[in-house]
């Protein structure tokens, strides 16, 4: 309802003030060939809007009374800037008014009141009276004076004809603000009239302050209600409504206090924004109070609010004048929001909702005040600032008080209900305490019985505990025996594997030794033709070679078993893994070439140049790489023997740095492994090589070195007919 004040006050100033001013001016000033005749000054003052002349030029001589301004163009500066096209593009200009002052006014103290939209310098008979703002030919240097300038006292002494000259400079940024301030409005009045006007005008800011204070208190009060009753969301929306109205009235109050044009314009925009916003929050509070769901109409109010502010404050979207656009925008939005408030209130009354009558009474009172205000304006009855402030305050506060009283009554009702519930809770608590005392007595009796039963049960449990401890001891003994049996079973399996592996070479050694003995006996029997002796010696030599070979195999088996069982004691040192891997793969290749005549394969090396040195046991890791390389070359050699068409034997070595570790891959394109072989490839003594070519401990030993000795992983991936890849991952 705060906007009603501004709208109705605007109508009052435009209609009532305009009519009375024109009547007074018509009586006070009569045209004369020499200029404008000022015979009397009424109590309300007279507006000097006739007889002005204008020139878009800058010359200090224009302030002199003897200057001839007959060629200047006539102008009425008491209009909106947009209604004076002759001022478009003007940087500095002059206005002159010739006044013929009656003898009764000569020597009497009079007051000039200026309202303007730029900067000005006021001269009387060539003498500078006052500067309002800063006049400059450079628009960037212009500093506007206040909308309503401080009163200027004048004494019309000397000749009967007085010359009032105004040097002015328009203020460019005013084009962005579409307000209702005329370009230059000059009112002349006496000191009694000025005092009366100031006394009446002092009522308005006081009323703004008081109304804003009421809304501040209402906002804080309902925020307090919201704090203690979160279920009633209407308190929150009403607090928004009251807070927005308080900000709007505060901006209006400050707008009456400041003197500068820029803060006055800014405060006017702030006041319009928050006062109109309060209408929307009032509608939202009514929705919540009556339990209605906001729909598109409520959303449309926010859109209309934005359009109203743009249309009235910042731009002109129509061909109407600024005053018409401003009034249309405000009246349109206020009418729309008020209609929605009335619709919600009437709907609440039809549904006989609680509090609807109280809220309707508040809106009815505001409507009566608005109607009384409108009737006074239509009847052209003089309205004092005090009467205007009283009516506007009532229009703003009565609806808010209606809603606030309803919410306060709801809060009080809820508080009373809570007190009733509290008394009921206290009664129930007393009954509960009495029942609790009875239960305590019953529990005491039950506790005595339970203690006796617990004592008997405890003795029984003690016996059961002894039996449980004996059973646990027997279980531990059985577990120890089971562990020992497992150890013995593993040892037996290991011993059987060792015996089996050593039995073959030893059997060969025994057989060849017996044959050698018989050959020696044949030589000793004298059956010694030279040819036969040569054959016996050759067979003997061959047997001895076989004995040596199988003896070396038995020695190799024992050596691998010892290496498999011992724990690494070699020191760890930073090692270049690229060099170590390439060296051992090359050794494996060269060693395998010496064993197979005509064997050729391609060794491809893809090493990561940014691989950092790793702290490892170099000899053990080298043994792993040598073993993997030997197995890879053996696999590709098997593919060569199978004479696969187009097959080129290849072993590829790859090293890569990875987050938190290092990868070493050894891949061959041999025949690959079956699923059965993959499952057992890391088992001790398991091998797919022919008898005499492998012990079955190489991969098992390599797996232990990588996993147990270095904390890494050794995995294998293989596909029959495509090849095999071993992957070593070492942590960094």
Care to describe what's here?
The chain is of the alpha+beta class. Among the domains are: 2-200, Galactose-binding domain-like (Jelly Rolls); 203-353, no CATH class; 573-731, Heat Shock Protein 90 (2-Layer Sandwich), CATH 3.30.565. The chain is 58% helix and 15% strand. It is built from 14 helices and 19 strands. The strands form four sheets. Strands 1, 2, 4, 5, 6, 8, 9 and 11 form an eight-stranded mixed β-sheet that branches. Helix 5 (261-290) runs antiparallel to helix 6 (296-314). The longest helix has 140 residues, at 385-524. The protein is elongated, with a radius of gyration of 56 Å. The model is unreliable at 1-34 and 315-323 (pLDDT under 50).
- CATH 4th-level superfamily of one domain: Galactose-binding domain-like
Please write the CATH class name of one domain. Mainly Beta
CATH topology annotation of one domain: Jelly Rolls
Portion of residues in helices? 55-70%
Question: Using only CA atoms, what is the Rg?
Answer: 56 Å
Rounded mean pLDDT score: 76
Quantity of strands, as a count: 19
Looking at the overall shape, the CATH architecture of one domain is: Sandwich
Cα distance, first to last residue? 77 Å
**Which structural class should the secondary elements be placed in?**
alpha+beta
Low confidence ranges: 1-34, 315-323
- Shape field: elongated
